[in-house]
Amino acid sequence: MKLHTGTRWAIVAVVGFCFSLAAWAGDKKGKPAPNPVVDSGSFGLFVKGQRVITESFRIEQQNGINTIKAQLKEAAGSSTVQKCDLEITSAGELIHYDWSQESGGSINVVPNNDFLLEKITTTEGGKPSEQPFLMPTTTLILDNNFFVLREVLAWRYLAADCKAEGGNVKCQQGPEEFGVLVPQDHASMRVRLELVGKEKVSIHGAERELLRINLTGESFAWALWVDPQDQFKLMRVTIAADNTEVVRD
């Protein structure tokens, strides 16, 4: 299932600890970052104002391993239609990525020497096909449908390209390019991220001052808003071309 036909995403990951910005946000308020839970909750996906999908997620950091788990449920039903499980080391090295859907089929991405190997299973009990990628094991996975992976992407960008100065975030001038593996497309791509700055945004009727990050590529343009006062958690995403909005519940 693809939620946005014709829209693509991708990045090549940077080497570094992708949760360092979340930890910094906790420290600057005089509190340690939550351990082991870095973030958990849900996003609502709205198309033309109508909620169509709920994504529940949980991010944990323990013993040098970062685990990101998420599942999708249709707004009209209670069953899980897709789920994913990503594990990476504190240095950004992929341990594994697993994706599956209720209707059948699964994808597994694992390190293969210094590169990546994708295994695709289309039927239960079937033999998986394999596709190698000459991409480093620090490449970030960017699944088509899980927005929590955009949060991890934003953290990697901020950790790699930005630094904290006097309670503010200062980034290098101009966009930063990354590349990623998009398992469902069996492809690698490139995207650009750029910090726009602070904007006042309405979240569930309350005005919040958030940091806007633009995420763009050849055929798409997204706007992401993260909360610098709450561990840079992803709060809102808009995809204007698809009349789509994602909001944290």
What do you see in this structure?
The structure is a single chain. The protein has 249 residues and is mainly β. The protein has one domain. The protein is built from two helices and 17 strands. The strands form two sheets. Strands 8-7-6-5-4-3-2-1-17-16-15-14-13-12-9 form a 15-stranded mixed beta sheet, with helices on one face. A two-stranded antiparallel ribbon has the order 10-11. The N terminus is likely disordered.
Main beta sheet strand tally, sense and closure: 15 strands, mixed
| Helicity range | under 10%
The residue ranges in which pLDDT falls below 50 over 5 or more consecutive positions are: 1-18
Distance between the termini: 23 Å
**How large a portion of the residues is in β-strands, by DSSP E?**
over 45%
Query: What is the residue-mean pLDDT, rounded to a whole number?
Result: 83
Q: Count of DSSP helices?
A: 2
Query: How is the quaternary structure best described?
Result: single chain
- Radius of gyration, CA atoms, in whole angstroms: 17 Å
Number of strands: 17
What strand line-up does the widest sheet have?
A: 8-7-6-5-4-3-2-1-17-16-15-14-13-12-9
Helix-strand pattern, N to C? HEEEEEEEEEHEEEEEEEE
Structural class: mainly beta
- Overall structural domain count: 1
Shape by Cα distribution: globular
Brief overview:
With 249 residues, this protein is mainly beta.
Which tags fit this structure?
249 residues; mainly beta; two-stranded antiparallel ribbon; 9% helix; disordered N terminus
Topology (SSEs and partners):
Layout: H1 20-28, E1 37-47, E2 50-62, E3 65-74, E4 80-89, E5 94-101, E6 106-112, E7 115-121, E8 129-133, E9 140-141, H2 148-161, E10 162-165, E11 168-171, E12 176-182, E13 187-203, E14 206-216, E15 221-227, E16 233-239, E17 244-248
Parallel strand pairs: 9-12
Antiparallel strand pairs: 1-2, 1-17, 2-3, 3-4, 4-5, 5-6, 6-7, 7-8, 10-11, 12-13, 13-14, 14-15, 15-16, 16-17
